[in-house]
Please model this.
Amino acid sequence: MAKIVALAAYFYQAAVAFGLLIAVAHLLTPADYAAYSLFISISQFTAIFCFEWIRFACSRFYPGQEPGSEAAERMALRMEFAACAVLCILAACASIFFAVPGEIAVLGGLVAIFQGASDLHLTMLRFRQEFRAFSRLQGSRATILAAGTLVGAAIAPTFTCTVAGLLGGYVAYSLLAMVLTRNSLHEAASLEPSLVRKHFVYGSVAAGASVIGLLAPLGLKSILTAALGAGGAAGALLALDLLQRPFILIVSALQAIQYPDVVATYDREGTTPAFRRQLGGYYSLLSGFTLMTAAGLFALLQPIGHIVIAPGLREGFLAAAPFVTGLAACRALTFNMLPTPAHLRHRLLAIFLLAAADCVLLNAGAFAAGHLVGFSDGALMAGGMAGALVAMGFGVKVLMSLPFDFVRQPVVLSAIALALPVLATAGFDYSLWVSVGAGIVGGAAFCLFGLYSYFVTMFRPQAQS
Model:
């Protein structure tokens, strides 16, 4: 039950983030929204660059494989974070000398630190199996950050005031987290340098892959902005911001619930038949829910575009959105499912090369499409999606390096659920809303069939055992 509540907290966060982007896009001018979008991408990139290696180390090694090691692991993680926070502030101050406005540099550095701290804190709670506190804080963070951002935008609908509201939300959330977990995570231990070295070797490579992963959409945003201008690219930028988030959050939710058990089983038992079944079930959940998410988004693109997207952004959004959905689905699998054997076996080079291939091919595809077809929203995103598909081919080879027993039926049903709204677009010339309705009904029906298949093939047998 606790895991289900934690999963619900992730879905709530996804819904809040989805609504927040729509609200901010309505409040800000297209140029201010473009600046806000780039700021969020850059601050996320900074947080990953400075702190993600610590979170990866936490996910792989905390609370430790030996009894009594949790406190020592936590002490190492905290000291690593403190050192990186100091470096983040120094880097933000140094950026002022490279023509970055002082207020933007400070806001960006502080947002990155608060984001990294909250992510690490939530990860530690999750691996301690404190799902009640984790769920409460996960939902609270989404609500408080959204409220702070909207208050800032409502006070003055400018880029700077909106970002200041986001920072205020992080401060308020941090105070709440300190109060709610004041009796947790306090066991004393001394710092062990060997743990820091272990964390850094694994975490830095895994985080390097995440940094490269963020460079891909950041590069794509730069290409869009350079080709179309800040105002002209705003619709496509909104599609990128809006449609990637459901994939990121849903896949993160599944990983939060399933991945710790996969790691523990592999470390204890190795590649036993039980582990192969567990790994195949994990892959099935990730791929099936990714396809269901794509089906839901694709079915709702036209209603979202015509009802909730601001008129000034609508044309660019609708042109880019189908390709962004495909791009986001491919990248969700490339970064979260395909490198799993490399993470389990510490094959660091494979992790890094797969991320590099995705980044290079995605941006090269967009750039090539711009020159071959034309620098438009749809053409650039279609090229990016093509590059992401090619990168998946390299990832499949990594995936196959560790044996697993894949649960196929729910994934097949999920693929049909995606195909129906995609094929329904052929009827747009006949009747837009009839085609949308057919896509929604057909996609929803097969998503339900897929969920029932998961229940029959995976969840019910686990409950009975």
